[in-house]
Amino acid sequence: MITTEEWSIDASGTLVLHNGSVIERLNLNGRTDLVALPDEMHVEGDLVLSGCTSLVRMPRKLTVDEDLYMVGCTSLENIDGSLHVFGNIALDGCAALRSLPDDLVVMHGFYATRCPALSRLPSPYRLGDVVETDHFRWEDNSKLVLNIKLPESVVIGLRGRAVRDVIEHPWLEQFGVSALRIMGAHIDDFTEQISLRLEQKNIAYHASRFPAGEMPLIMEPVHG
Question: In terms of domains, do 127 and 219 share one?
Fold first, then answer.
């Protein structure tokens, strides 16, 4: 058994919190013996689960006041229940992860890379600043390919991709977007021709410029 003053991992691989369900911050990086987390947890700082390759069960109710890191949690297939993260959530290399909870709140960034089994984002759910995931894929450095089900409203970071490439892609119609808010430093190619194209698609838009280097291009679809 691995034991600290605040927590231990018992013989079954379950995390045991010694002072109730609340802990200040928790770094379980590389704990390959960790199999399950308790049913309810509130982490007042960061929660690091990276390298927990045997982890198969998350809490039914998990609140993280800062960031949640899950890199290489290769055995985890589902996150059920309630997950509220008031910072960023980073999922990387969670190869078996298929689903996220419907009660998902992320106040800042949602990042998911190398999670090929993840087939959808829950809808509705609340998201803060930006979504970045391998499921938004660019082909030939031009066209955006979506192979994940988007929620009804999402902010997509395009990392300087041309606005034209996105506007010409059928994802706007596919997901029923009725308005588009575009902001960032790289909107120089947002020309009258592009404005006309959006009008032809019956999509309202608003564009805002930020100083160069302040933030990447962000597009926020709004559904009618």
Answer: no
